[in-house]
Amino acid sequence: MRTLFYAIIAIELLNSCTNQTSRVKEGLLLSIDFDKTRESAFLEEFVNKVEFSKGIKGSGLNLRDSMILPPLKNTDTSWFSNSNNFSMSVWVKSSKPTPDTTIILSNSDFKRMDMGIYGKRSTNKGITLYSYDGAWGWNIGNGKLHCNYEPVAIDQPIADNQWHQLAFSYNSNLKEIRLFYDGINKAVLKVGDLDNTDFRSALPLRIGCNKYDSPSYKSFNGTIDELHIWSETLSKESIRNEFERYRNANSEPELKNDFFTVVNWNIWHGGTHYSLDKDGFDGIERTIELIKNAGADIILMQETYGAGSQISSSLGFYYYEAASTIGAVWGANLSVMSRFPLEDAYMVEEPSNYGKNYAFNNGGVKIRLSKEKSVIAFSNWYNRGKPEDLEGALNAWSVLIDDADNVPIIFGGDFNSVSHLDDGEGKSGHSKLMARYGFIDSYRSLYPDIVKHPGYSYNTSKARIDYIYFSGERLELIDAGPIIPNFKGKGIQTPGYPSDHLGIVAKYKMN
Q1: How far does the chain reach from its first CA to its final CA, in angstroms?
Q2: How far is 127 from 168, CA to CA, in rounded Å?
Q3: Is-above-0.70 flag for pTM?
Q4: Mean pLDDT of 317-327
Q5: Which residues of 418-453 are buried (b: 16+ CB within 10 A; e: fewer)?
Q6: How confident is the model at residue 429 (pLDDT cuts 50, 70, 90)?
Q7: Domains delineated in the chain
């Protein structure tokens, strides 16, 4: 009986696929619009256990009121694998935010718990799309480690009684995941370090969850509609077109004048060393506030660790992450956050001293400042005694560096070494390598007197070990520094700087 039931579902899903119009058809694996007349097989066994509400078009599946939700397939989701391209899109709507984690779609034995630094982490294979605190979340696991994206509700709500499109794509060649909200590519995750362990799950794909299968969670507190899965990497334009079948997408921001500000900051283990209860301030919230005060347009971050999506989303920024299996939380050390949209993403797929690839040391993304102007931003972290890691990254991006007069490059980070411009030696060789490849040290180029302007960035040693370098004749350096000052509240100095590194600032004009 169950085999026959799944066969009927497969036939109905195939018929549903063939009836799609004005949309991407190639590679469409699954397409459900949840209209009662077209998903009759879906209802046949569960007619008294599922509920439908008004959808974005026709009917939608009401997860809040359905008593039980069947899996969509009785086989493992073989399409969902490191070696395959795939994309997914679904529309969701809820009128009531809930602090609970609720499942929208999953083929994983998902365990969210505390996915921040040093906390318990979801390690099960598969993917989960979920809701929490009125926003949405996304998780992928490979059986040992996980990668996560959790924006905040003020930036990307899904419990505001409006329909929202959630989508993602995976490119197996680029080892790249792109996440979309309402037709806009909000995040790019480079997951090359995951390649050694497949994230394919043996569990069926399930909408919501049943209390018997996942007693820790409930199903999404709302309705879903228009679920589509493709066996190909949809372009940003295709996903935007999917969204615009029902709503007009927002225009993306552009640089209104030629000036933009870059902040580089090692935020010290994800900003988690201080809490409101223990210290009188929250480290992550203080980090966000200091970045706002600095007027940042682009942020190069190190030791991002589980805080990246919260920080970038709280700023309303786009997010890039170089996922790494090294460090306290997978996928956490290096990130780039931008006020402006992200284009090509970069991560070296060669061995370094910190694992399978350079994900812990170097990662970057091209940022579209306007239709005519782009800049490439790299975030970096290097061990003081390993200059070969920096040289390997610079060699890998030699084509980009050679073209820097057309598309300028910002190359910042925590180099864990003193520059030869500061001590006359530069024993680690990092600063000399940067000079050899044509990069300019922003701070020291404006303030060459190290006595008057020491510019230290590390509290313990009082040394300058964090830098913002740049290359390209189209970039004009306007200012560098001051170092982000300790936080001041209501004009009074208050204790509690959230990191052991001081953030540094550089302002440029794009000619």
Answers
A1: 69
A2: 11
A3: yes
A4: 81
A5: bbbbbeeebebbbbbbbbebbbbbbbbebeeeeeee
A6: very high
A7: 2-239 (2.60.120.200), 261-510 (3.60.10.10)
